[in-house]
Amino acid sequence: MKTYQVHQLLKAGQEQLDKKGIGTVDARLLLEYVMKTDFTTLLSKYNEDVQEEVVSSYMTLLKQRMKGVPLQYITHEQYFMGNKFYVNESVLIPRPETEILVELCLAKIEEIIRQGKRALRILDMCTGSGCILISLVKEVSSKFPELDMEWLGVDIQDGALFVSKKNEEVLLDKPVIQWVKSDLFSHIESGMEYDLIVSNPPYIPRNDLEGLMNEVKDYEPIIALDGGDDGLIFYRQIIQDSYARLKNGGGLFFEIGHGQMQDIKKLMESRGFSDIQEVNDMAGLERIISGTKN
């Protein structure tokens, strides 16, 4: 096997990815992953020889990346809200845009606390990697350690619940989340009311799935993408069922696809939700909608 110094191996990786039209930054991130180091340390080692087994591992991962496997599924890492989450092919890769949803949920929780409530119950429907709920737990427990909180994460897939539990073990000081396998509300205890329900459900219209980027449609779980014929099948059901599950003054928060805002707003209004808030992301695309039960 050819002998490489760090900078030579990095250049070789960049050239291979560039030929496939893949951003060369992934070559560096893969090398950092294989060498178990960060960018600053990598720079300090630029002229050092690379061990043969490192070269072999790196070349293997480059081949996966060139086939289109997302970087995050190779490294099993994705940062979200400043924390490193474990991901695999059972869950969607957390997106930066979803951080907006977390921030808005935090604002709602703080609003409820300001009203004098000291015990809250939060539900994350279609939890996937658990990135939304775990991020909420970390932020709320840090700001309001005295609160009596109940946290529930729900998903229909065993694989997703494995990932979310794994992330809880790594990112939280102690287990505080109840994880439930359920087809939406079907196995959620009846009569239990929540202060906030948040969901980032599948929302891609079925006929649009084939037009997604190859990295998404070929590797991310279709069950977490397919929103039915019009992309709204899960919104209809969650909106319909969540109203009775929310306390008065409680909030329902969704991430949505661009172009779905007005249809979802009508669904929420027709179910009785008020104070509908519409939020776009940094690119100006429709991203978050929320409503209140009064």
Write the CATH homologous superfamily of the largest domain. Vaccinia Virus protein VP39
Q: Say how many strands there are.
A: 9
The major pleated sheet works out as: 7 strands, mixed
Strand order of the largest sheet: 5-4-3-6-7-9-8
Averaged pLDDT, please?
Answer: 96
Provide the helix percentage. Answer: 40-55%
CATH class of the largest domain: Alpha Beta
Strand content: 15-25%
By CATH, the architecture of the largest domain is named: 3-Layer(aba) Sandwich
Low-pLDDT windows of residues: none
What is the count of structural domains?
2
Structural class: alpha/beta
The coarse silhouette is elongated
CATH topology of the largest domain: Rossmann fold
Q: What would the keywords be for this entry?
A:
294 residues; alpha/beta; Rossmann fold; 2 domains; 7-stranded mixed beta sheet; two-stranded antiparallel sheet; 11 helices; 20% strand; elongated
Task: Provide structural commentary.
This protein is of the alpha/beta class and 294 residues long. It is 42% helix and 20% strand. The chain has a 7-stranded mixed β-sheet, sandwiched between helices. The chain has a two-stranded antiparallel sheet with strand order 1-2. The longest helix has 17 residues, at 98-114. The protein starts with 5 loop residues before the first helix and ends with a strand.
What's this, in brief?
The protein is an alpha/beta fold.
